[in-house]
C-alpha cells in the first residue's frame, strides 16, 4: 500500500502505527498539522474490513480536524486516531492503557478525545497513564451534547438561508444515526417543533427516540428517499455518494457526521441539484469547541463559542452564493486562509 500516494494523504506531518500484542491494541494515529497548536481530535474504534480502510479513514478524519479547528478559531492543530476492532469484543482496561502509552510516545503532539464507539470512561482509563487526552469527565466531559447543539444551530442557519425563516415548526428532518450526538439533536429539533423521521442499526435507540420525540422510524436504506426538508447524516461518513445523491429530496443537508461527501466532486453535484450543504467540519465543531475549554472549564463560555457556528455557516452560504461556488469549497478556502495566517485572530 503506497501511503504517500493516496488521494487522502495531504502532507500529513506524521502517521504512527501502534500495536500491543498483549492487549490486542492495533491503532493508527495521524497528525495532519500542528501549525496552529498540538493536533487534537477524537479516537474512533471501528471494525474496519481492511487496514487500508482504516488508514484512509484516519487520514481523512485528521485532515478534517485541521480544517475544523482552524475554522472554529481554536489554537489547535488537526489529528485523529483509530483503534481497529469490534468495540463489543476488544474493549478492555489494559487496551486503553496501552493506547494511553502510545499517546505518550507522541509527547503531546497529538491529544485524543472521544469519537465513534469511544466513551468518556474509555478516555478516563487512558488518562491514568497519559495526560494527552481531553474531553474528560469532571472537566469538559462528553462533547456530544455540544456537537448536537452546534448541529442544531447549523440546521437553523441553513433553514434561515434557504427557506428564509427562523421557525422549524413543521419542517421534516430525516436523521440517520441516533447515537451520542443524534439523540441530543433529535431532542433540540423536537423542542423546536420539527417532525422527525429516523433510522439506526440499533433498535433500542430507535424505540427511545420514537417514544420520547414522536419520531417516525424508517428502514436503514429508506432514509434517503424521505420527503424531508432536511437530511441530517449523523452516523458514519460518505453517505452522500453516487448511489444516494439522486434519491435525496431534502433541499438542505446538515448533520454531524464527519466526511459526509464520498468524494470532493459531490460538493458541486449538490449545487447542481439545488441542495444547500452545511460543510461537515463546520457544523459539527461544537464538541471540539467545548473540549478546547477543558482546563478551567466554563460551560457558558463554551456554549457561546459553539453558538458562533450559526454565523460562520451563514458567512459560508453567502460567500458561496456571491462567488458561485459550492459551500464545501468555500469552507476549505476559508480554512486554508486561517491556517496560512496562523489563526483566525490574525485575519
Ligand atoms: P455514535 O457511535 O454514538 O452513534 C452513531 C450511531 O449511528 C449509532 O447509534 C449507530 O448504531 C448508528 N449507525 C451506524 N451505522 C449506521 C447506518 N448505516 N445507518 C443508520 N445508523 C447507523 O457516534 P456519535 O458520537 O453520535 O457520532 C456520530 C457522527 O458524528 C460520527 O460521524 C462522528 O465522527 C461525528 N462526530 C461526532 C462528534 C461527537 O461529539 N461525538 C463530534 C463531531 C463529529
UniProtKB/TrEMBL annotation:
It comes from the Bacteria. Keywords: NAD, Nucleotide-binding, Oxidoreductase. The keyword NAD applies. GO terms for molecular function: nucleotide binding; oxidoreductase activity, acting on the CH-NH2 group of donors, NAD or NADP as acceptor. It holds the Pfam family ELFV_dehydrog. NAD(+) binds at residues 177-182. Residues 141-347 form the Glutamate/phenylalanine/leucine/valine/L-tryptophan dehydrogenase C-terminal domain. The active site is at 80 (proton donor/acceptor). GO terms for biological process: amino acid metabolic process. CDD domains: NAD_bind_Leu_Phe_Val_DH. The keyword Metal-binding does not apply. Belongs to the Glu/Leu/Phe/Val dehydrogenases family. Catalyzes the reversible oxidative deamination of glutamate to alpha-ketoglutarate and ammonia. This is Amino acid dehydrogenase. It comes from Thalassomonas actiniarum. The lineage of its organism: Bacteria, Pseudomonadati, Pseudomonadota, Gammaproteobacteria, Alteromonadales.
